[in-house]
Amino acid sequence: MITANKSAAGERVPIREGLLTGPLSRLDRVRLAGCSCTTCGETSLGSKNICPNCGGDAVREVSLSNHGVLWSFTVVRHRPPGNYKGPDPFVPFGLGLVELSDGLRVLSPIRCDIDKLKIGLELQFKPYVRKDDDGREVVAFSFEPASQ
Ligand SMILES: [Zn+2]
């Protein structure tokens, strides 16, 4: 397994281990990773060995849907503290809870004009690459309005 700390410059890594599936070299095939519990039926974000709902270990990895609907949102109007990697100077952006067709909700930046944000907006998963301070290509994600 490749961990972020051992990766070299130029290498492509997920923004967090266990969060993405698919070859990172093919952004069109990258999906959010999830796990589905065969005991209680819960689907949750990220690959896990234990179901966060019932504690059972009968979980299997799944690729989550790349389509969803904006369930709720806010507009971030101030630069977040810490190592924020967005544009400089800061540009306000939408941050939403996206309800995937798998039923779970994922917190994600919403990449569109903030005036276009509205509950019920149809969205599609949009992985993208940014460089980190060590020169690695970090695959992160957002959602954007679904193409018509
Ligand atoms: Zn379960």
Strand content: 35-45%
Shape: globular
Q: What's the rounded overall pLDDT mean?
A: 91
**Low-confidence stretches at least 5 residues in length (pLDDT < 50)?**
none
Sheet of most strands: 6 strands, mixed
Q: Total number of β-strand segments? A: 10
Q: What distance lies between the first and last C-alpha atoms, to the nearest angstrom?
A: 38 Å
* Order of H and E elements: EEEEEEEEEE
Q: Tell me which ligands are bound.
A: zinc ion
Main sheet: strand order: 1-10-9-6-7-8
What is the domain tally?
A: 1
Notes on the structure:
There is one protein chain. This protein has 148 residues and is an all-beta fold. The protein has one domain (9-145). Helices cover 0% and strands 43% of the residues. It contains no helices and ten strands. It has a six-stranded mixed sheet with strand order 1-10-9-6-7-8, with no helix packed on it. Strand 3 and strand 4 form a beta hairpin. It starts with 11 loop residues before the first strand and ends with a strand. Zinc ion is lined by residues 37, 39-40, 42, 51, 53-54, 56.
